[in-house]
């Protein structure tokens, strides 16, 4: 499994996610997790409200790379 950082690249409104960190086998599986999932009755629903295929950037995270900020979370209320 790999870690993927999924970030919105547009305006984020109230009660919407601006980023998510998911664990998945590959890029396509990470994208599926970000956009939709099934509940116990097999109905599709948005996992992260506001995420669409056209407004997200998906980055595979590795232990290599430059030091720096990866993800932050602010609870606006």
Physical arrangement of strands within the biggest beta sheet: 2-1-5
Question: What's the domain count?
Answer: 1
Overall 3D shape:
globular
First-to-last CA distance: 34 Å
| Secondary-structure class | mainly beta
SSE order, as H and E? EEHEEE
Counting DSSP E segments of at least 2 residues, the number of strands comes to 5
- Tell me the number of helical segments per DSSP (H or I, 4 or more residues long): 1
Give me the oligomer status.
single chain
Largest sheet: 3 strands, antiparallel
Which parts are unreliable, with pLDDT below 50 for 5 consecutive residues or more?
none
Radius of gyration: 13 Å
Helical content stands at 10-25%
Strand content: 25-35%
Mean pLDDT across every amino acid position: 82
Description:
With 77 residues, this protein is mostly beta strands. The chain has one domain (2-61). It is built from 1 helix and 5 strands. The strands form 2 sheets. The chain has a 3-stranded antiparallel sheet with strand order 2-1-5, covered by helices on one side. It has a two-stranded antiparallel sheet with strand order 3-4. The radius of gyration is 13 Å and the shape is globular. The model has no long low-confidence stretch (mean pLDDT 82).
Give a concise summary.
This protein has one helix at 27-35, and strands at 2-8, 19-24, 36-38, 44-46, 56-61.
What is the topology?
Blueprint: E1 2-8, E2 19-24, H1 27-35, E3 36-38, E4 44-46, E5 56-61
Antiparallel strand pairs: 1-2, 1-5, 3-4
Task: List the keywords.
77 residues; mainly beta; three-stranded antiparallel sheet; globular
């Amino acid at each position: 499994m790999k870690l993927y950082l999924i970030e919105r690249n547009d305006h984020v409104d109230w009660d919407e996610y601006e980023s998510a960190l998911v664990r998945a086998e590959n890029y396509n599986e990470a994208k599926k997790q970000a956009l939709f999932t099934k509940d116990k009755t097999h109905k599709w629903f948005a996992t992260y409200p506001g995420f669409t295929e056209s407004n997200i950037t998906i980055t595979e995270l590795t232990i290599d790379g430059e030091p720096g900020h990866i993800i932050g979370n602010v609870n606006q209320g």
